[in-house]
């Protein structure tokens, strides 16, 4: 009974605004005739069943409440076991991830030590290469200076040989002269 009274009260409230809307529409029609920007929009909120004189009843008077859980709709035990086993697998996977990350960190530390060792070895090799290059430059400079000295001595020898060649030619001329003169003097 209470629900029907509330519903009837709502219908009365709905009728009052509809009556006011009628009055507004009449005055709005008169106003809109003179204004070019005015657009006449009318909405009616009347209940069609009420106009016929009949009372319409709501389809659902009281919202349905959920049924209390019965024994037939309980969750089976195997589902709890399956969920528990999934949690256990998740925990094992988490532990495995922790162990793997610790293993990776240990390997990372070892590799860092090896890389530092390689770095020092590379540094030592680089230093020894620099020292060898400096020695090689020193040796090359001494070889170049030796080559320059040898060239100058060879040039001196060539000039001396040219002088010796001139002396040899002069000695031959003198010998020829000497040979020709002793033959003429015994007479």
Which descriptors would you attach to this protein?
187 residues; mainly alpha; MCEMP1; membrane
Structure at a glance:
This protein has 187 residues and is mostly helical. It contains three helices and no strands. InterPro entries: MCEMP1.
Structure overview:
One of its GO terms (molecular function) is identical protein binding. The chain contains three helices and no strands. The model has no long low-confidence stretch (mean pLDDT about 75). It starts with a helix and ends with a helix. About 75% of the residues lie in helices and about 0% in strands. It has about 190 residues and is mainly alpha-helical. The longest helix has about 110 residues, at about 75-185.
How much is the radius of gyration in Å?
Answer: 63 Å
Q: Give the averaged pLDDT, no decimals.
A: 77
How far is it from the N-terminal to the C-terminal residue, by CA?
190 Å
Shape: elongated
Number of strands: 0
Structural class: mainly alpha
**In terms of per-residue confidence, which ranges show pLDDT below 50 for 5 or more consecutive residues?**
none
The percent range for strand residues is under 5%
Q: Helicity, in percent?
A: over 70%
Please describe the biggest sheet, giving its number of strands, its sense, and whether it closes into a barrel.
Answer: none
- Count of helical segments? 3
